[in-house]
Amino acid sequence: MESLIQDLLQAISVPWVGLTSVGVISFLAATLLPFSSETVFFAYLVQFPENIWPLIAVASLGNILGGVVNWHIGYFAKNTKDAILHSKDRPTSKLSSYLRQFGSKSLLLSWLPIIGDPLTVFAGWSKLSFWPCCMYMMIGKTLRYIFIAFVYLASNSSLGTLFT
């Protein structure tokens, strides 16, 4: 049994599978599923620091696409609820008024653990404009990966060669 577990772990290990697994895990982590893309991102970065820019691009793209799926889930859930209940007049919640106040810019925080994924769903539920939401998700999620890479590379003194 132990060798079976070892074989499974080796089969799905980041260095063996590569950037594809980083992209898939980043996508799944951006949905409401409980995954962490940062650990896979960091593990790949430690193994292959020379691939920093493709790594940031793939992880960001996967995470953004997961956020887009969340936005659509919220959007279609709201449409379905409205169609079934035939009612659009409901009291607004604090989150709803927050989203109306800050709009799509609030999705700069979509990278945050615990609140980021529900925030993208609620942005779709609130019918915030899709393309501005995508732009702010892209900025927030990409800056998070750049920050992680920057901190790791700065701590290993190889920053000058990889960020030039």
Write the layout of secondary structure elements.
Elements: H1 2-11, H2 14-17, H3 19-30, H4 37-47, H5 52-85, H6 94-102, H7 116-125, H8 130-155, H9 159-162
Helix pairs in contact: 3-4, 3-5, 4-5, 4-8, 5-7, 5-8
Largest sheet: number of strands, sense, barrel closure? none
User: How many structural domains are formed by the residues?
Assistant: 1
What amount of the residues lies in strands? Answer: under 5%
Low-confidence runs:
none
Number of strands: 0
The total count of helices amounts to: 9
The percent of residues in helical segments reads: over 70%
Which shape, going by the Cα principal axes? globular
Report the end-to-end length measured between terminal Cα atoms. Answer: 47 Å
Order of helices and strands: HHHHHHHHH
| Average predicted confidence as pLDDT | 84
Radius of gyration: 19 Å
* Helix/strand/pairing category: mainly alpha
Report what the structure shows.
The chain is an all-alpha fold and 164 residues long. The protein has one domain (16-162). The protein is built from 9 helices and no strands. It has helices spanning 2-11, 14-17, 19-30, 37-47, 52-85, 94-102, 116-125, 130-155, 159-162. α4 (37-47) crosses α8. The longest helix is centred in the middle third of the chain and has 34 residues, at 52-85. The N and C termini lie far apart (47 Å). The model has no long low-confidence stretch (mean pLDDT 84).
